[in-house]
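P.,

For your records, the input lines for the assembly:
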Amino acid sequence: MPDRAAATAFVPGHVTGLFTVDRREAPAETGSRGAGLTLEAGVEVTCQPADRTTITLDGAPTSVESVSRVLDALGVEATVEVSTDLPIGRGFGLSGGMALGTALAANEAAGLAHTMNELVSVAHVADVEAGTGLGDVVAQARGGIVIRESPGAPPHGALDGIPGGGRVEYLALGELSTPDVLTEHPDVLTRAGTAALERLQERPTRSQFMQSARQFTADVGLATARVESILAAVEETGGVGSMAMLGETVFGFGTALSDAGYEPQVTRVDPAGARIE
Amino acid sequence: MPDRAAATAFVPGHVTGLFTVDRREAPAETGSRGAGLTLEAGVEVTCQPADRTTITLDGAPTSVESVSRVLDALGVEATVEVSTDLPIGRGFGLSGGMALGTALAANEAAGLAHTMNELVSVAHVADVEAGTGLGDVVAQARGGIVIRESPGAPPHGALDGIPGGGRVEYLALGELSTPDVLTEHPDVLTRAGTAALERLQERPTRSQFMQSARQFTADVGLATARVESILAAVEETGGVGSMAMLGETVFGFGTALSDAGYEPQVTRVDPAGARIE
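Structure tokens returned:
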């Protein structure tokens, strides 16, 4: 039965280095400006239409609001199997990644004939409405080092990219509960994010991305003591690390973390963006 | 000397299945609507800043107007080495591919700090001004199966994508001299291209892409007798092939051409788009 075929999508992880909070009335126009890295480490989602939706994460039953919202929006009931080589809840954009992977895989498996922009919009709205992300989905759909020039899903948001990619190191230390500043004083983040984005747009290079992200981390004061100590150690070796927004995770290009004596996880910038496998 | 470092970019080939001609006063706004496939077969461009620009293609000295125009626009003199596994002048968008590859590699090698959108715009304008392409560069930058919703380089043009990819077969039979209809009656092409694009947008799937491209080929009457005969043979086996716009080249998904007894070249849809290697 072709309408019960399974399809699998891959979505890169996304580490935001700097961001703004841009809330609008419509979720499709709500989002975030800023910049981040999409990663070859990511999330794989397999969907198979079924009589009743079930979701598993690395084999264990779970519920993921952004995924359920995508299936509702598409009018699909499906068996959804999610697997990832990234840690959950540590700033890798996995809620958005699961939403986008579900949109792509469900569209393919159920023969729905939506375009990429339509599926990105469905996943972005689901992530925004679930309260789990503002800018991950649009970046994950594009791939590379993504600058979010204006907020929201297609056709509202506008993206650009910093050419190139390369090796990325990260240390995922722990989860970070949603900081008060995000819910109560988003204007503080947005002011710092706007300034950091402007500096990056003046010189859009990989090196300046790290500098802008590092300055943003310092400005918003969200780094834990463990994160601060690693960032300081990296700087002592002449490198630059920064903090994933939002998780207790430190990242850097090349060998920035291992040069400082840490034993980080290693991945690369993903050049492709989300795709059916 | 870091300012004499070399950098290499890969750009996928691009087969246009249907297109319009949308000329505007500004080359950045000039372009084409339509749809096409980007391919894992493509062009590799290595740039190294030099005192005087030289261009080689698979080792042999050559001149490529779109490449020279990109270097002029960027203010770079460079040794440019181009290699490709696709045949030149047969509808694979190689002029645009060489322009975009040069833009990416020269930006990287010379440390110019342009963004992706800026480099895409420089390459698109060079391809338009050289008279060698209207819509290849923007599609090649994105990757996948690309719908060009509106013409021109960023931020003018708007793109969407058909999810998925897969195996692509092609037979490159020969060059095609620029047909009179393109220069003298672009309105005929644009009428057929607009109709084919509308059908595709009603049901944006891989299958409909082939149907729309096949209908466009029939409507514009550019197929040679050899192309017509292959398309008919493919249809007899229940498959769909179409003609690359513009080259004497037949393409199809999966095993469309080999099922009809041909021995085609094989590649796949490129998921990533142009990138630094």
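Two observations worth noting. The first strand of chain A starts at residue 7 and ends at 19. The two ends of chain A are 20 Å apart (CA to CA).

Regards
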